[in-house]
Amino acid sequence: MTISDNTVQPYPSTIPVAITFDDKKVPEIIPQKPEGRIRIRTLCFLGALLPGLGCYFCIAYTYLFQFDRVLNFTSSHCPNVKSPFPPVSYSIGVWEPQKFIWLLVLCVHIPPRLFFAMVYKCQYRLGRSIHQKEEWFPGVARAHMRFLFLEPLGLIIVSVVDIDSHFFIHSFGYALWLISFNFNMLLNTILHHYSGFRDLHDYHDTTFQLKRLMFIIGCPVSISTAVTYLTYAVYCFNFSDFTEDFCNSYAAFSIAEYIMVGFNSAFYFLIIWEMGESHIDLTVGNIKPALMDA
Prior knowledge:
Layout: E1 2-4, E2 14-21, E3 24-31, E4 36-39, H1 40-65, H2 67-71, H3 88-93, H4 98-113, H5 116-125, H6 136-160, H7 167-194, H8 202-238, H9 247-269, H10 271-275, E5 279-282, H11 288-293
Antiparallel strand pairs: 1-5, 2-3, 4-5
Helix pairs in contact: 1-4, 1-9, 4-6, 5-6, 6-7, 7-8, 8-9
């Protein structure tokens, strides 16, 4: 599996390679022409833009066609608290048909999303910075790759386990998604700069500036979700007579969620300007025919 640009010369049909299998060397014919090809632009639309648009569609559907739910919405934790901005979890995980629309979006989104770790790994190698040889660089890159896999895992948990049925599991999934995303913004920005990729072209520097700005704004917004939700939950529990005074905390939590959904899509969609003309080549090797002939 390789990432290439459109200037690569055509592949030869096959290349013989000697491999060891059960202590025997056998020839393997590895096809050099890719079995499949995925464009980075396709990954950007399905792996970055689609989930944001899908989530906002579910929220818009709620306001347009189920506005009575918004007007009568109350939290299961604080029944006396009403908010004009229900959390995203209800629009994508509880209310129908939005729940099924979001699950369909998730099924299309997750497979291409898993390729992003490989794309970023190859992207950093394009840079020509001496920092890539320093001891800390591979460790930061590995941490970034792991968070890139943890983030969609958190999204799957949030989407499959709804807030009403298993609140704590749902909350864990949300925290995993949000924390992983913030670390990915931070590590991606660091690696973008210190790998030297930022210096390859002017628009790479522009995307770096945008990523840095999104992290500077997104990190405090993410932290605010914890503060506002805890404020709402604690004071609702202890001072139930004054729940209306803390309605704004719950609304602020939901608004911060809405913002982070857009930030998530926009951050990863930036790669379309960084490697939009590239593609991923998929090659399948099979040693069985070679073993039968050996």
